[in-house]
Design the sequence.
């Protein structure tokens, strides 16, 4: 996907189309990854600007993750070619020109400044804005709500209960109703979505096939650090991640874990640049059949308390790796609960701003007719 540019004597030279995306990328989930996947498909090189903690706190409220954590999370998404740390909250032509980007891409929702203005107004006016489809059924708002509610209704194969329905009706809802962008909806997995996220690459002769397994819930920087270390174990690693079913995760983790169901966790892990393949619903105990089927030469984990690795240990292919990170899904949930009131207030403020814009857009449409 190249574009024409003037070069010596008027001859048309081809140069790559450079695409810009920006955002908070707080609690990075497969919705963010899907936006970046779509943006990357519109050009040849994707640069992602990530806002600072200070900017997010000013316009939106407290971020769950620090800027350093968010920078690393975005860099780990396989469609991202480069990140721009400390990108301004309002996207300007100056920023696009600074990074030599042709246009910027955002989802079909709306992003507003503290005073309710569209952060993409300038680039839209200049014709350097493209839109992609927002991923239905996931938002940071919904994930935060699941943590606070502590029910299991978001798990696969569990009927929705009244508490969860009430949560989806009310979480983050302001006094004037729902915004279609901040409100909660149900994610529906499709085979097409898995195909879009999957690498589609088979292991090649000379590849070292490494198997890791776990919940990989709320895919976070601790997971990224671990997978990066695993990736460094071989010259040509082919990492297969086994994901346990929701009921299995709940059996060993308890409470309302996992926060993300098996379908959501699958996409989150597939989006990571270090992972080549995912086993959906892997057995808790790593079996001889699994190791033989995938021709696994190493089986790696980071927590000694994790059981189920007897067979890899018996074969002498089990290895423990220190990820260097102490961040766990439990710690993330604790961060959220600690700041519960701030997050609920943030969601309500955000939704109120979005509803005001919707009303203004509606009035404009009515005036036209």
Sequence:
């Amino acid at each position: 996907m190249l574009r024409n540019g003037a070069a010596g004597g008027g001859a048309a030279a081809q140069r790559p189309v450079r695409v810009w995306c920006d955002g908070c990328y707080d609690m990075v989930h497969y919705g963010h990854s899907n936006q970046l996947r779509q943006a990357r498909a519109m050009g040849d090189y994707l640069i992602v600007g990530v806002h600072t903690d200070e900017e997010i706190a000013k316009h939106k409220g407290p971020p769950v993750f620090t800027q350093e954590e968010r920078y690393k999370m975005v860099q780990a998404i396989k469609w991202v070619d480069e990140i721009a740390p400390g990108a301004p909250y309002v996207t300007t032509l100056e920023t696009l020109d600074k990074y030599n980007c042709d246009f910027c891409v955002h989802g079909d929702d709306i992003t507003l400044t503290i005073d309710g203005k569209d952060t993409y107004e300038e680039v839209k006016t200049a014709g350097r804005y493209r839109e992609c489809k927002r991923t239905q059924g996931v938002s940071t708002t919904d994930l935060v709500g699941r943590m606070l509610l502590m029910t299991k209704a978001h798990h696969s194969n569990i009927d929705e209960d009244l508490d969860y329905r009430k949560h989806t009706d009310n979480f983050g809802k302001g006094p004037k109703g729902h915004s279609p962008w901040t409100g909660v909806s149900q994610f529906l997995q499709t085979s097409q979505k898995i195909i879009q996220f999957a690498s589609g690459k088979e292991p090649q002769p000379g590849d070292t096939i490494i198997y890791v397994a776990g919940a990989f819930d709320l895919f976070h920087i601790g997971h990224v650090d671990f997978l990066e270390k695993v990736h460094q174990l071989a010259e040509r690693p082919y990492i297969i991640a086994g994901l346990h079913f929701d009921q299995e995760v709940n059996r060993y983790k308890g409470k309302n874990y996992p926060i993300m169901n098996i379908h959501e966790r699958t996409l989150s892990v597939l989006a990571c640049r270090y992972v080549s393949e995912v086993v959906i619903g892997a057995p808790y105990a790593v079996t001889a059949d699994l190791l033989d089927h995938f021709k696994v030469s190493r089986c790696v984990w980071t927590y000694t308390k994790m059981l189920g690795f007897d067979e890899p240990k018996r074969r002498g292919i089990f290895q423990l790796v220190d990820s260097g990170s102490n961040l766990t899904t439990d710690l993330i949930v604790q961060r959220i609960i600690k700041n519960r009131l701030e997050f609920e207030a943030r969601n309500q403020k955000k939704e109120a701003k979005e509803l005001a814009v919707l009303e203004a857009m509606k009035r404009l449409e009515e005036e036209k007719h």
Q: What stands out?
A: The chain has three domains: 18-132, 140-158+166-182+330-367, 191-320.
